[in-house]
Design a protein that fits this description.
By secondary structure, the chain is mainly α. It contains 18 helices and no strands. It has one domain: Growth Hormone, Chain: A.
């Protein structure tokens, strides 16, 4: 019989002292051979995602797409990711993670080829839905449930928040490098008198390259520990997982109005920022968000997982709201950076919370079920954000996002998770 989750344990109770990580192979320290390939691959995928998250809206604008069409393609990427993530977690979560992750790399390579060779709206929308393109600042992809479950299987509960922070930090650094490199296609086009849209289209081959390098990292992943498959996904933990999924979807619906593609559109249409300035801003935001997660692991050890999530997220949402109100670019960038310094501190705490309250065989399913509603909810709002920016350059998407995400924080804090 699978081990029952510790549902009677208060998520607001401080975490035990993390100590040194036990990676499952005798290694000591931050990461070991059992987890390093996943962290490395996450960084590689982060580079591609950071590059594309800035490039996507500009490229589609250069093709002549409207704000609604751009938002629709962004929505398509999120809807497709949601479906694939759910299928992966529920159907393939108990399979060898290396095989599943290598299959995801094949799909990622195909996505890059599709965007590098197609320029019409409807075919691009199809590729967006069936592929792995990620227009957000974080990781919303088919890789997510398998990687999170594999990391949880290879660490103990005390070490998990810190390992998830390192995992997210690797992705954040990669995303920052990608965002910094995002103006390169425009620079090359101007320098050599190339067509800007054609140059940007070819730049999507970065997804193909990243898929190949990530696959090489996954090939070094040691064999998975034996894990009994769950005959019925989430049989033991269904109630708490569905409750958390509902709460997380409120947060993500607001987040869909403030993903990188919408932020780029807002900064461009309201303040006319250059591609270089937007890339630098998003890169700095990604670095701040990534480093803050290391502090979150320490904070969770003092005040608990749920309080760490709420007490860092509320002020971040206030900064996001202010970024949509202020009258000049400097203040908008300042508040976006302040928001970034706090907005991701809930991520490792949230991931550790989900892994903590479910049985080991249910981890991949729980990761997908808690992330899929987030993706679906986020997919409902980018088109609205594009429509709002088509009709006004004022920061209504950011204002609505900040208010709705603050509501989520208050609802999460009120939940009696310790009595689940």
């Amino acid at each position: 019989m699978p081990q029952r989750p510790t549902l009677n344990r208060d998520p607001n109770e401080p975490e035990p002292d993390a100590g040194e990580l036990d990676t499952g192979d005798g290694a000591r320290g931050a990461i070991g051979t059992a987890t390093r390939p996943i962290v490395v691959a996450r960084a590689i995928r982060g580079v591609a995602d950071g590059f594309v998250s800035v490039l996507l809206a500009q490229y589609l604008s250069h093709l002549g797409f409207s704000g609604v069409e751009i938002g629709a393609i962004v929505t398509g990427t999120l809807l497709g990711s949601a479906a694939l993530t759910l299928l992966t977690g529920l159907r393939w979560g108990h399979h060898d993670p290396r095989r599943v992750l290598l299959g995801a790399c094949v799909l990622m390579a195909g996505t890059g080829l599709g965007f590098a060779t197609i320029s019409r709206f409807w075919p691009l929308l199809v590729v967006a839905v069936v592929g792995t393109l990620n227009p957000s600042a974080g990781d919303v992809s088919v890789f997510l449930p398998i990687e999170q479950a594999a990391l949880a299987d290879r660490t103990d509960e005390r070490a998990r928040p810190r390992l998830f922070a390192i995992y997210n930090l690797a992705g954040g650094f990669g995303a920052a490098l990608g965002a910094l490199a995002s103006p390169l296609p425009q620079w090359l086009a101007r320098r050599y008198d190339w067509d800007v849209a054609s140059t940007e289209r070819l730049a999507f081959t970065i997804y193909l390259v990243a898929a190949v390098v990530a696959a090489a990292a996954y090939l070094r992943l040691p064999a998975a520990p034996h894990r009994e498959s769950a005959p019925t996904p989430l049989r033991e933990s269904r109630g708490i997982v569905l409750r958390l999924a509902a709460l997380f979807s409120i947060d993500s619906a607001g987040g869909g109005l403030a993903i990188n593609a919408i932020l780029v559109l807002y900064l461009d249409r309201r303040f006319g920022l250059s591609a270089g300035a937007m890339g630098a801003t998003l890169a700095a935001a990604s670095i701040l968000a990534s480093f803050s997660q290391l502090a979150a692991a320490r904070l969770a050890a003092r005040i608990g997982l749920v309080r760490t999530m709420v007490f860092t997220h509320l002020p971040a949402n206030g900064f996001l709201l202010l970024a949509g109100i202020v009258p000049n670019a400097s203040l908008a960038i300042l508040f976006l950076l302040l928001r970034a310094s706090l907005s991701s501190m809930d991520v490792p705490a949230r991931q550790a919370l989900v892994m903590r309250v479910v049985t080991p065989p249910e981890r991949a399913a729980a990761a997908s079920v808690t992330n899929v509603p987030r993706s679906l909810a986020a997919a409902t709002t980018p088109a609205l954000g594009g429509w709002l920016l088509d009709h006004s350059s004022f920061g209504w998407p950011l204002i609505i996002a900040g208010a709705s995400k603050a509501l989520y924080d208050l609802l999460l804090l009120s939940q009696p998770l310790d009595r689940t």
